[in-house]
Amino acid sequence: MSLAVIDAREWQNRFDLETGQPRKSDAPVAEMAARVLSRHPYPGDVDEQANQWVTDTALDLISHYDPDLVCLSYVQQFFSDRHFNHSETERERLFAAAMAEADRFVELSGFTPVIVGTGNMIPLAGDMDLSGLDGLAVSSNWSARYCGIHHPSPRDMEFLNSLDTLERIVPRQEWIDLFQAAQPDLEILQDPRLMPDFLAVAREGQAFKTMGTTLRKPVHIPANNFQVPVVSPFGPVTDLREIKPLIRAHLSTHKIALILVEGVGESFFPESRYMVQNGVDWFCYEPGDAFYLTLSTGRHQPFAYPAGFRSFDKDADAIKFPFSGYMDAVPGHTLGLNFPGKSIAVGNRSMFMHMAFGVDISIECFARNLFNQGCMAVVHRDDK
């Protein structure tokens, strides 16, 4: 059973990850992870030192655990660019600094890097307020392009079809069929009854204002990044799903770091980069759970936590993993799962580091909507 160690600077406690109940553990790996946490308080999502925290924490963890696989995410520049209005010069500095921090980790650790960008950010052109529908519109604080529409009335559909800021309105089965054609073994693990009847897709630069979004209005949002940049020393890749098998094929001979830099597009990558497919047809992955899980599992994952999913209608008594946000199960098929060597993940993306990669030990910020509540380590394996 997985152990969570939460460090709020003034106190540190241990919990069962699945139930959220207090739990005692004096396993050497748990003790080591707790000490690393205490040495690296999280500075905050938009703090200039947030990405440095990722590097320094990862290097400390490496020095005490000696992993063969490391997964990192550098996200400070994404949070800062999304929520604050910077000059173009400052924006370029933020993105370049993120790449420089990834390079610093590679230089100091000696790991062979596979670096993945999530693509460019663009200014918000406008947002669509769908709160007045007869049915229910559900979007996410971290999604700009997609919104789920539940039980729309004829009046709702007439209104939606009149919006020139919408690119398309896709029935649920058509959305599913699109991905099943691309991947016949597609998994839909959530209750289909809680999925939206229609998926509303915004035009590039537009976003939604609905249930699920917050009052913190974005300044920049992800572009329609149908391709994203990748640096790979192991040869070319053409699709996001090819990165997992590429890394696993070389872990017997290399110590490898999979590094994500969110909000960073191809212009900040070296000329040796590859541009890889990021989605299917009209659907591109935004930075979020579907992107992370598709990268880590090597399978399309738009329905692990689908856009517009009514997670709030789940049976409250059946909800597990209270420290994992809306993620309610440890995913299968992930990069570190069943890997016999040692593995770690460190990043300033809450939830994703301990859920998306299947590694032995993860350390991440414990923050929600930019509010810093400390940091958390999760120990999935203490037997290596």
Automatic annotation (TrEMBL):
Domain of life: Bacteria
Protein name as it appears in the record: Uncharacterized protein
Species: Desulfotignum phosphitoxidans DSM 13687
